[in-house]
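Figure 6 in text form: structure in, sequence out.
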């Protein structure tokens, strides 16, 4: 192998070569390329070597840290779309738009598994029995302890359609 010739597939902006002493040398086209190479990339948030929740390209998620509004709006859009995708797995597409919104809002807040825990509510929704579905929503920890005002508002929308 010739000195200075790439020895590994090129990662965007990163070139790995061997110097005259046969040591591996890594060069980068920019600071961003250097950081991407060193930090790696993860779609999932993980705990780094110091115990800090981290994700993306080395972004530490610490209580009190901030991100720009544009980032939060993008995350919100993703979360709403994800909630809609999960809603469509439940075969409740026959519901009115506002009742669908309630289901998606519950998935958004409680997670898919949390919403799936409302078995009787979902059964009544499939039957078109919205009064019973609305009542079942209020027979929950969600209403009793978590967010009673929100649960009551969602229950009313479910009842009224």
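Output sequence:
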């Amino acid at each position: 192998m010739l000195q200075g010739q790439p020895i590994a597939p090129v990662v965007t902006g990163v070139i790995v070569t061997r110097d005259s002493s046969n040591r591996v040398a890594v060069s980068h086209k920019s600071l961003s390329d250097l950081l991407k190479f060193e930090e790696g990339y993860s779609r999932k948030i993980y705990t780094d070597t110091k115990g800090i929740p981290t994700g993306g390209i080395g972004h530490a998620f610490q209580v009190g840290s901030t991100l720009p509004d544009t980032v939060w709006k993008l995350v919100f859009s993703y979360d709403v779309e994800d909630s809609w995708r999960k809603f469509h797995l439940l075969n409740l597409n026959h519901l009115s738009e506002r009742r669908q919104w309630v289901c998606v809002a519950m998935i958004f807040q409680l997670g898919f598994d949390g919403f799936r825990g409302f078995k009787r509510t979902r059964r009544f929704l499939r039957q078109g029995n919205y009064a019973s579905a609305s009542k079942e929503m209020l027979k929950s920890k969600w209403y009793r302890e978590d967010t009673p005002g929100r649960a009551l508002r969602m229950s009313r929308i479910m009842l009224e359609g």
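Caption detail: The first strand starts at residue 14 and ends at 18.
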